[in-house]
UniProtKB/TrEMBL annotation:
It comes from the Eukaryota. Residues 34-137 form the Fe2OG dioxygenase domain. GO terms for molecular function: dioxygenase activity; L-ascorbic acid binding; metal ion binding. PANTHER family: OXOGLUTARATE/IRON-DEPENDENT DIOXYGENASE (PTHR47991). InterPro entries: IPNS-like_FE2OG_OXY (IPR044861), IPNS-like_sf (IPR027443), Oxoglu/Fe-dep_dioxygenase_dom (IPR005123), Plant_2OG-oxidoreductases (IPR050295). This is Putative flavanone 3-dioxygenase. The keyword Protease does not apply. Gene3D superfamilies: B-lactam Antibiotic, Isopenicillin N Synthase, Chain. Keywords: Dioxygenase, Iron, Metal-binding, Oxidoreductase, Vitamin C.
Length: 191
């Protein structure tokens, strides 16, 4: 697990710095913040469920990360397709890793990158394991929308945030299927 996490972290940093480069924003301050950032590893274990259509493994959410890299032992991850508002299953491809944008990069890119709305479903035949590595900046490092991406045609759409702000939100709010989405609380009112 240690070696896997180390390698996934290297991959995550490479993808995140490339995504920053593609946006054409100044990487001078951002790259060291990404390289010194946090990796939270969620290991999810879903036992077989006799009536999977009546339950969910993980309710719909977006990840509080810049980027998430996920390994799944069998299919079960579903993402919301914003084109037609339906859930689409992410196929299980042995050895493949799924890369999702998280809330941080939606804020940084002023909405050019969209945080992925996703959920974990259950099945009635076999235990499923997923390992999600969530990469974010350090606890008190603020993520803010890149000034290069804000102009008269594209006003700033999000307020700045840190991982600690997210933890405070979790303590003070109801989360889960009926709860508030943290990403929505980051959107500025005039958008
Ligand atoms: O099990 C899955 O496929 C989803 C896991 C997930 O979304 C998470 O750990 O944040
Ligand atoms: Fe997730």
């Amino acid at each position: 697990m240690g070696k896997f996490s180390e390698e996934v972290m290297k991959l995550g940093i490479e993808i995140m710095t490339t995504l920053v480069e593609i946006l054409g924003i100044n990487p001078t301050n951002l790259t060291p913040m990404i390289e010194n950032g946090m990796q939270v590893v969620n290991v999810n274990c879903y036992p077989p469920c006799p009536q999977p259509e009546l339950a969910l493994g993980i309710p719909p959410h977006s990840d509080y990360s810049c980027l998430t890299i996920l390994h799944q032992s069998s299919s079960g991850l579903e993402i919301m397709d914003s084109e037609d508002n339906t859930w689409k299953s992410v196929p299980h491809i042995p050895g493949a890793l799924q890369v999702n944008i998280g809330d941080h990069f939606e804020v940084l890119s002023n909405g050019l990158y969209k945080s992925v709305w996703h959920r974990g479903t259950l099945n009635n035949s076999k235990r499923r394991i997923s390992i999600a590595s969530l990469f974010s900046l350090r606890m008190d490092d603020k993520v803010e929308t890149a000034t290069e991406l804000v102009n008269d045609q594209n006003p700033k759409k999000y307020r700045e945030t840190s991982f600690r702000d997210f933890l405070n939100f979790l303590v003070n709010n109801e989360v889960g299927p009926q709860g508030k989405s943290y990403r929505d609380t980051l959107k500025l009112k005039n958008n």
